[in-house]
User: Fold this.
Amino acid sequence: MGLTETLARLAVRATRILVVEAPGQWQTRVELEQQMLRLGWRPAWTPGDADVLAVCGAPGPELAQLVERLWEQMPGPRVRAAVTSPTAVTPALNDAAALLLDTPAHRTDAQERAQKPQIPAVMDHGGHGEMGHHGIDHSGMNHGGHDGMDHTSHGGMDQGQPGDEDHRTMKHEDHHGTDHSSMNHGGHDGMDHGSHRGMDHGDTDQGQPGDEDHHGMNHSGMNHGGHGEMDHSSHGGMDMAPEGIPLAQGGEDRDGLGVDVLHLPLGPVLPFWPAGLVLHCSLQGDVVVAADAAVVDGGSHADGIHSRHSGLVPAAAVRCDNLVALLTLIGTQDLAARARSARDALLHGDPGGARGAVERLHRVVRRSIFVRWSLRGVLPLAPADLERHGLPDRCLGDAYDRVLSLVERVRAEVNGANPGAPVGAERVPWGMVPHLVTGLEIGTVRLAVASLDLDPFPAVHEVGHA
Amino acid sequence: MPENMPETLLTTVPAGWAVLAGMILCALAFFAAALDSALSARAEGAGRGGWLAPAWSTARLLRQRRRTVVAADTLLLRVGAAGMLGGSFLMVAVIPFGRWTLADLDVGVVWFNTVDVMVWALVWLAGWGANSVHGLVGGYRFLAHGLAYELPLMFALVAPAIAAGSLRVSDVAGAQDRLWFAVWMPVAFVIFLVGVTGFSVWGPFAAALGADVAGGVLAELSGVDRLVLQAGRYAFLAAGAAFSVPLFLGGGAGPFLPEWAWVVVKTVAVLAVLVWLRRKLPVFRPDRFLEIGWVVLLPAAVAQDLVVSLVVVWKG
Amino acid sequence: MALMAVLAVVFLFTFHRLTAVDTSPLEVLPAQSGWMPQEHALSRFHVRWYLASIVFLAFDIEMLFMYPWAVIVIERGMSAVVEMFLFLGALLVGVVWAWREGAFRWA
Assistant:
């Protein structure tokens, strides 16, 4: 049919790609972005808008599971592209373009694929297991104790105490008081995946309808500190969980109003977000009332960053990339485009072009009342806060101060004043992020995280170990 | 349609001409989308994808399958998305195209206001109906923006009506034969344009579709559902720009060209400015803009109305 | 024009049926970076600007008077202007008060 054919040919020119960046694949992702731009292709922000799912690098087991679900959410025509390295980008995109044109294949795929998502009777052990796990991790709770509690108290409650509404595993405030710095990332991450998940499975009885509630409650309670009220158990069965997903439950907000709590994980596949970082947020309205941070797959894929140590990727390019994210989030498109061209010039060894772009960026960011207005007062940090959270000096002030200092540093580096700045020395420990963003509105959370100028993940993880 | 013709020689055309009006609106909306993507491509140095990119995107969305989220309120979602395109058509019904108009309502200005308030419901429905956190947050963000821009917009709409002593759009256009309202009521004009960007969910007011909530209201839409919502935004932007012509820019008045041509020229100019501004301005964060809307824009609009009514009374 | 609007939308949807790779909508999970949703998003939302919305209502009702008033200003002259702007002035004082109370600032 001529019409379909023509339409397909036109459509391919506007292809949108959902980019998944496995930790450590910064370079691959950036190369992919450059090649996409050359073709006039755009990134998709959600699977619903994506034609191509491009996975940069080899995802670990946890990320692979998420990628699988994202793939199921893509409307079709859909094509998958495995981009294993920066050199694989061009062939992968060419293949994707060719595959997208094959309309009969996409028709078949549309008919043969699962028409509904798989929602397990007991919702998703894997995902929840890991969420629970991370919650534990960061709240500094004792693992052994937690496991015990998980089994005994919940088991008991599920069957016997329908009215136990006030059973909160952990208060929000308590969660805050906990000292994240005392935790041991490596140990938890390594040990926990298997055991916690296994435990959940063991706990699960597919045959019992009540189990599902038990699980939802279990994890929301565990994870997010006191927001999952336990009144699930009084309503057994499906009416509380249409299509197998529970209804949102109320929790008290800071004004004492009963408002539903929604759980929204930010990352790891989210545009303009540090790749690999997962922030499990509990939202009331658009306010993040509790959060837990983790790195997908426990940050175990600690390869890839070597290129930065060996000097292949200038630190300024990474800084510019973080600027692109921040400037896009505040919506100043032209500034973001400039930061991106500075980044690409740096990567292509074009110091002259980079210098020009950075100088103009510097001028505009300093003068723009709009940039100032958008970022002033976002996550202000006093010297005492820096000390308390173990943050480097460059995080002082609010997001606008941080952006200015970021641009200043890029400028110094591009002008050769500060060659090979010690990148790793000033890292922001990602375990601090939940402390910093709790209580903020979700847009502000995004700005706050972007303004911290986090390093790409494996590098940060190494600091976590140290 | 009212039968009493005003003295401005306006002809109310039969309803069949709505087809032409719709096509002009779609052409203007396409122009806005094309200009936007051309500006994007230039700023980003894209290798391909300038003026024609919206056509390709349309083809892409027509080919793409629709989706619905588990347990979504599909009806509300579809009403919200398709309503955006439909609403913009309703808005242009009262705009005189040179000497012709489809509906010369004696309350045309109020009609415009009614349709733009409808957008509140549409955007919120599209956000709520998706059963997705991003959409939900986006939908409520739009309401917060609406609270800030809507009242100043209403007061800005009143200013030309006071000066013309009529709410009929053609009367307002005809009352500017010596001096455009945009010249002697600039505050109202600027606030009107702020309102137009607002109800088009455009640029600074696109927080409901923001990058920070993964597209917000748009997050779950695909295929034709996404197409009608996006097309509706551009069409609303075009309709708003077109409405500014009779209201503030003297309607079809101008030398050499026929009246309808001046309407087109002025509309395209306003539209181009609105599209261009998107790239220069950040997204106004709803929480911060609320205060600006109430403490700066609203008093400014009321003061403008006061000045206009004093001038009118003094002269008349 | 309303008919035209409906026709445009119907046309697009019909056209889409012909050209899309599949006509029936796909049912999916909400976009959450691939994580399973823990609950439905449809819920009681924490609307933090409820105070502002109440002030808005007061003004919105006022607009009912404003439109007819705009038409008769010229006939009635100064008295109409004074009356209306005294009223608006009172409302604006209310706005200033609400502002000082923090109704337009979200925390």
